[in-house]
Amino acid sequence: MTDRYSVIGRPINHTKSPLIHGLFAEVTRQALEYGAIEGDLDGFEAQVLGFREGGGKGMNITAPFKLRAFELADARSERATLAKASNALKFEHGKVYAENFDGIGLLRDIEHNLQVPLAGRNVLVLGAGGAVRGALLPFLAAGPARLVIANRDQAKAQALAAEVKDERVQVVSYEALAGQRFDLVVNATSASLTGELPPVPVDVFATAQLAYELAYGKGLTPFLALAREAAVARLADGVGMLVEQAAEAFEWWRGVRPETRPVIDRLTVPLQ
Ligand code: ATR
Q1: Which of 138, 137, 163, 133 lies closest to 151 in space, CA to CA?
Q2: 176 lies in which domain range?
Q3: Most buried residue, 163, 182, 225, 226, by most Cβ within 10 Å?
Q4: Number of folded domains in the chain?
C-alpha cells in the first residue's frame, strides 16, 4: 500500500502542502499520497488517530491545532517542547512523535536562500506567540549577537525569555525600539493577517539588510511596505519558510531531502 500523509487544519482549503509535498515526491521518486483534511474542532484527536489507523505515516498540522497535536503525541522534540506546538507528526513503532519545523524552516530560508547569516547579527523579532516560540531555539543556535523581542503584551515576551534563559535575548517595548538599529527584522506577529501594522518605529530598518514577513501570500503587507519605504535591501514573505519546513518534514518522514529552490520559485508571488 502507498504510504499516506496529510495536512490537517481549519480552514484547510488554501493549503499549499499537498502541492509542495507532491512536487517533493515527484523529484525524489518517492511513492506516497499526500492529502488535506478539514479538522474538526471537537474531534481533532480522533481524526489524527483515525488517519494513523488507516495506514497514515505522518501529518502536518496547521492552525488552530498545533497545540493539540503537541499534546496528543507520545514523544516530543526539544523544539516542539519550547514552542508548545507541533507542525509535524510521525507515526512509527506504535507511537506518535511530534516535531516543530517552523523555526528551522524560517532560519534555513534566511541563511541559506536569502544569504543572511545570523552569526554576530542584531536581530529583532516582533511578536511573542506560537511563531516566535517555534523560532527561538533555531535562531539562538545560529549565533546572533543579540535577539530582541518586542511584543504589545510585554509580560508574555518576558515569560518566554525566562523560559529560554539566554543572555542574548532581550525584551523591549515597541516604544523603546525608537533609535535602535538591527541587521534583520522579523515580523512574527499575526498583525498582517488582518492588514495591520505592529507599532514598530521605522528607525529599526535604518541599517537592516532584510525584513522578513512570516505571513505568506499577503503581498506587500504594511510591515513590508514600511521596510521598503526605509529602503531595506531585501524584503521576504514566508513562502521560503513554508517550503523549507515542508522539506524538513519530508526528510524526517522519508529520509531524503528534496531540493527546495524550484518549489519556492514556483510558489513565489512578486511583492507589490
Ligand atoms: P502565532 O501562532 O501566529 O504566533 P499567536 O500565538 O496568537 O499567533 O500570537 C500572535 C502574536 O501576534 C502575538 O505576539 C500578538 O501580540 P500580543 O501578544 O501583544 O497580543 C501579535 N499581534 C497580533 N496582532 C497584532 C497587532 N495588530 N500589532 C502587534 N502585534 C500583534
Answers
A1: 133
A2: 103-237
A3: 182
A4: 2
